[in-house]
Write a structure and sequence with these properties.
The chain is mainly α and 181 residues long. The chain has 5 helices and no strands. 70% of the residues lie in helices and 0% in strands.
Length: 181
C-alpha cells in the first residue's frame, strides 16, 4: 500500500513504453528531415523552372521549422503559463505554415506539373503534419481548460452542498459561511 507521504515510482513497463515512444518519435523526425533534404536536392530544378510556385521554399522552411516542435518542454522552474504560451505560439506558427502550404500545394502548383514529384508529396505530408500539430496545440489546451474549469465548479458546488448538509445550514444563494476563527 502506498501512503500519501511516499513517492510513487514508475513501473518498468511505463519506462519502457516511454523510451520506445521517444525513440520512435526521434527516428520519425530524423527520417522526415533526411527525406526532406533528399527531395529538396532532387527537385531543385523545379524551383528554377517554375517561377510561380514556391513549393520548394515551403518544403525547405517546413524542414527547418520541424525541429522547433520538439523544443517545447516544461522545465521544473518554469511556470506553466510560459509552457502554455510556447504551445500556443507553436500552434499559431504551424497554422500559418499550413495555410502557406495549402496555397502552394493547390493554388500555385497549377502553373507547373509538380503533382507527380516527390517534392509535392513531401509538401503534402508536411501540410498534414502541420495541421495535426496545429489541432493539438490550439484546440486541446482550450478543451482541457474548459474541462478543468467545469470539473472544478462541479467539485466546488458538491463540496458546498456537503458542507451545508453537515452543518444543517440551508443556503439558497450558494454563499459559503466560513466560521473558522
Amino acid at each position: 500500500m502506498i501512503r500519501d507521504n511516499e513517492e510513487r515510482k514508475p513501473s518498468l513497463c511505463y519506462i519502457v513504453f516511454l523510451t520506445i515512444l521517444s525513440l520512435t518519435l526521434i527516428a520519425g523526425l530524423v527520417a522526415y528531415i533526411v527525406l526532406g533534404i533528399v527531395y529538396l536536392i532532387e527537385d531543385y530544378k523545379l524551383s528554377n523552372e517554375c517561377k510561380g510556385c514556391n513549393l520548394w521554399a515551403y518544403v525547405l522552411v517546413s524542414v527547418i521549422l520541424s525541429c522547433m516542435n520538439i523544443g517545447i518542454k516544461n522545465d521544473s522552474d518554469e511556470p506553466l503559463d510560459n509552457s502554455l504560451i510556447k504551445i500556443l505560439i507553436g500552434g499559431i506558427l504551424n497554422l500559418s505554415m499550413s495555410i502557406w502550404g495549402g496555397i502552394e500545394l493547390w493554388n500555385n502548383s497549377d502553373s507547373c506539373d509538380v503533382f507527380n514529384s516527390n517534392l509535392w508529396k513531401f509538401g503534402l505530408s508536411s501540410f498534414i503534419l502541420q495541421l495535426f500539430i496545429c489541432f493539438i496545440s490550439l484546440l486541446v489546451p482550450i478543451i482541457l481548460l474548459h474541462y478543468f474549469a467545469t470539473y472544478e465548479n462541479t467539485l466546488n458546488s458538491t463540496n458546498l452542498r456537503d458542507n451545508q448538509d453537515k452543518n444543517g445550514i440551508k443556503n439558497d444563494l450558494n454563499l459559503q459561511i466560513n466560521t473558522n476563527v
